[in-house]
Amino acid sequence: MALELASETVWFEKWRYDDAECKYHEQKNQNLLPSSIGAPADVVNRITKLEGENASLRKSVQSLETTLAQVTARLAALECSCSATAKASPPQLQKPSSQKQEQDSKANDDDDDEDVDLFGSDEEEESAEAIRVREERLKSYAEKKSKKAGPIAKSSVLLDCKPWDDETDLKVMEEHIRRIEMDGLVWGAAKQVPLAFGIHKLSILCTVEDEKVSIDDLSEKIQELEDYVQSVDVAAFNKI
């Protein structure tokens, strides 16, 4: 009986039992330790990753802000150059025969003034017939003065015609604009002016008679070409 008990793993001393129990709990705690500290390490890794992504986003935002500032500066420079071009006076066309016509008209008026005797001759007697003749002459003289043809008022206008996008053919746009005909309207030179982002505008010069042509009506006729023209602006307006 004693030999059977000795062969079995039975501890009769209490200290052996306590020692085995302590080792068991220590081993159990060691097995649980990696899983208990794993969660905080994962959280730290995620926070580090988020901070890296946040720094990358900040760099992207700064790069976009720098690009936007450069584009804004380029647009401002283009607007300044366009304004300077618009302020430049367009070439004025002078008719060589206009001065001669004015001189001939002035000479004819002087001849008419010499023919009119406003006060009559001192030798003529002041009679009813003389008074009637004098009044008729005064009336005729006043009518001639009122019907005197003055110089025709003309203006030189520079129009900026802006297309919808950079795919619009400005040559075709110019052909359609020149087909607009109005009494007192004469089309002049035209050129393509860079606007922004590869888009060009058509600057076209025209001469109009002020009494016959309204710039607002002309702008409306041009804007009716909706397939080509987005807007029309008066860049320069000079009296001739």
TrEMBL record:
<dbReference type="GO" id="GO:0005829">
    <property type="term" value="C:cytosol"/>
</dbReference>
<keyword id="KW-0251">Elongation factor</keyword>
<feature type="domain" description="Translation elongation factor EF1B beta/delta subunit guanine nucleotide exchange">
    <location>
        <begin position="154"/>
        <end position="240"/>
    </location>
</feature>
<keyword id="KW-0175">Coiled coil</keyword>
<protein>
    <submittedName>
        <fullName>Elongation factor 1-delta isoform X3</fullName>
    </submittedName>
</protein>
<feature type="coiled-coil region">
    <location>
        <begin position="47"/>
        <end position="81"/>
    </location>
</feature>
<dbReference type="Pfam" id="PF10587">
    <property type="entry name" value="EF-1_beta_acid"/>
</dbReference>
<dbReference type="Pfam" id="PF00736">
    <property type="entry name" value="EF1_GNE"/>
</dbReference>
<dbReference type="InterPro" id="IPR036219">
    <property type="entry name" value="eEF-1beta-like_sf"/>
</dbReference>
<feature type="coiled-coil region">
    <location>
        <begin position="208"/>
        <end position="235"/>
    </location>
</feature>
<dbReference type="InterPro" id="IPR001326">
    <property type="entry name" value="Transl_elong_EF1B_B/D_CS"/>
</dbReference>
<feature type="compositionally biased region" description="Low complexity">
    <location>
        <begin position="87"/>
        <end position="100"/>
    </location>
</feature>
<dbReference type="InterPro" id="IPR014038">
    <property type="entry name" value="EF1B_bsu/dsu_GNE"/>
</dbReference>
<comment type="subunit">
    <text>EF-1 is composed of 4 subunits: alpha, beta, delta, and gamma.</text>
</comment>
<dbReference type="GO" id="GO:0005085">
    <property type="term" value="F:guanyl-nucleotide exchange factor activity"/>
</dbReference>
<dbReference type="InterPro" id="IPR049720">
    <property type="entry name" value="EF1B_bsu/dsu"/>
</dbReference>
<dbReference type="InterPro" id="IPR014717">
    <property type="entry name" value="Transl_elong_EF1B/ribsomal_bS6"/>
</dbReference>
<comment type="similarity">
    <text>Belongs to the EF-1-beta/EF-1-delta family.</text>
</comment>
<dbReference type="GO" id="GO:0003746">
    <property type="term" value="F:translation elongation factor activity"/>
</dbReference>
<feature type="region of interest" description="Disordered">
    <location>
        <begin position="86"/>
        <end position="131"/>
    </location>
</feature>
<keyword id="KW-0648">Protein biosynthesis</keyword>
<feature type="compositionally biased region" description="Acidic residues">
    <location>
        <begin position="109"/>
        <end position="128"/>
    </location>
</feature>
<feature type="domain" description="Elongation factor 1 beta central acidic region eukaryote">
    <location>
        <begin position="118"/>
        <end position="145"/>
    </location>
</feature>
<dbReference type="InterPro" id="IPR018940">
    <property type="entry name" value="EF-1_beta_acid_region_euk"/>
</dbReference>
<dbReference type="GO" id="GO:0005853">
    <property type="term" value="C:eukaryotic translation elongation factor 1 complex"/>
</dbReference>
